[in-house]
Amino acid sequence: MPTLSPLWRNGALALGLLLPGSALAQAPAAAPAATPAPAAPSPDTVVAKVNGAPITAGDLAVAADDPALSLPGVDEAQKKGLLVDYMVDLKIGAQAAEKAKIADNPDFARKLAYFRDKLLLDEYLEREAKKAVTPQAERALYDETVKAMKPEEEVHARHILVDNEAEAKKIAARLKAGEDFAKVAAETSKDPGSKAEGGDLGWFTKERMVAPFADAAFKMEAGKISDPVKTQFGWHVIKVEEKRTKPVPSFDEMKEQVEAYLTRKTQQDLITKLREGAKIEKTAAAPAAPATAPKADEKK
């Protein structure tokens, strides 16, 4: 991917990306009058020429999709101006490379062929995935996934972690006598991840915690304080705040995951189908593929 050249970055400053603290940056801007957005230009509209070679609006659109040219925090008008400057630099450099006969190098030809194939495949997979990832397919996968989910119990708990059992017993006694758990946790807990939150661990399922801690927490009633519990991390005093059955995530909460899964599956299935229908011949010069690791149930 191309990187932003110094000229490109200088162009950004010239177009008014002011440094914080400058007088102009601090001056209040007048509210612009509401005007209708101009119609998008045709992809063939010429926006600049370099030694007679045109740069079109379509060329800018391709550059705008390049992740290497992402400009967070820059408004669209400025970004378009910066992209024009970048494309001018790119065209100048490409013309110089042509004169230097870079394109005649066999290595360059191989790279060009590789990236052409890669772009073709990427575009093809993206197009086919868009056909397959429909609202109906997303909803069907969500319903199937939710139906297969087993109800899980969750606990919302707090804990205090200390180094030894004697200290844990003293803390448990203080808490059972009525002292505020969050206050005592802030004073005594050795767990940096939860100490500032009053020992709060949020909601968790049993498998997310180490066995002695999880066993104790899931046996307790809400509102109770545990006796000291030992794990490999030290000694814990636990308070269970609430218990519940883990709620099923909504479709909106899972939509991104569903879409990503369907996209990957569609593309993987397509590649598998293409391989099955292709005549593939590997010569003796081809490196051997690594051996496939045995599945868990195949290991002795």
TrEMBL record:
InterPro entries hit by this protein: PPIase_dom_sf, PPIase_PpiC, PPIase_PpiC_CS, PrsA_foldase, Trigger_fact/SurA_dom_sf
Segments of this protein annotated with the region Disordered: 281-300
Keywords, in A-Z order: Isomerase, Rotamase, Signal
Any Pfam family matching the protein: Rotamase_3
Biased segments, Low complexity type: 283-294
Reactions catalysed, as given in the entry: [protein]-peptidylproline (omega=180) = [protein]-peptidylproline (omega=0)
Enzyme Commission numbers on file: 5.2.1.8
Signal peptide residue numbers: 1-25
SUPFAM superfamilies to which the protein is assigned, alphabetical: FKBP-like, Triger factor/SurA peptide-binding domain-like
Superkingdom classification of source: Bacteria
Protein biosynthesis is among the record's keywords: no
Record GO terms (molecular function): peptidyl-prolyl cis-trans isomerase activity
PROSITE patterns linked to this entry: PPIC_PPIASE_1, PPIC_PPIASE_2
Domain PpiC: 152-242
Entry's family note: Belongs to the PpiC/parvulin rotamase family.
Name of the molecule in the record: Parvulin-like PPIase
Lineage, highest ranks first: Bacteria, Pseudomonadati, Pseudomonadota, Alphaproteobacteria, Hyphomicrobiales
